[in-house]
# Entry
Amino acid sequence: MASVVVRDYIIPANDFTIAGEASSNVRKILSQLGVAPNIVKRTSIAMYEAEINAVIHGNGGRAHVEIDENKIVITISDQGPGIEDLELAMQEGYSTAPDSIREMGFGAGMGLSNMKKNSDILDIKTAVNEGTTVMITVFFK
Amino acid sequence: MKISEIAQLVKAEICTKNYDPEIEIFSACSADLMSDVMAFSKSNALLLTGLINPQVIRTAEMMDIKAVIFVRGKKPLESMIEMAEEKGIVLLATDYPLFVASGKLYKNGIGGHGE
# Structure
């Protein structure tokens, strides 16, 4: 029976100085486990975009990560405003981020498409005024 | 191209200590929006940006970007330098604007399409 690595992180709201800590930590774990560098990179990008989204749009949230010998599954959930039109939000360049976020270098409208491109399975559950849960799966082979 | 050659070409100051002088840079990406950087997927890359905040270093880390050049005379914050040193990312600062710095590197063989 292979071991499973499980980690939980709190993603603080509106704190840009530590946003990305969870993704950085997961990145280190994957590298230590000897996962191929291109897979580590894809996972890092997908998780970092989701983490940043939770900071920007979701008033912070939580990340739950499970790694087994074949894959990593990352679940990032927030209790923010939810996504009104998911199909529209998936379009490259579409963003609802305010100018203050754009000044920080985010809000280009590439987050969701970057997540999709870098994960093998991307599952988004969202409800207006209830929150959003993003589940990212990346297979190692 | 080695970091020292890049620094010379864009008259940049190297802000981080103890970097690996043997790192070879093959491609570069110029952007102020970090999600645009994350849509770029080349290896051994360099980032040119006018954005100053810790997320630039985080983005570089996630993207395996080896070096970042801050343009238009902007200098990285001390906290960014510390974070970059910890992650082995080289930080440089030049007075050239983004277009000129990018053009000088492009003209000298750094492409936008990897090796």
Q: What stands out?
A: Strands of chain A lie at 5-11, 61-67, 71-78, 121-127, 131-139.
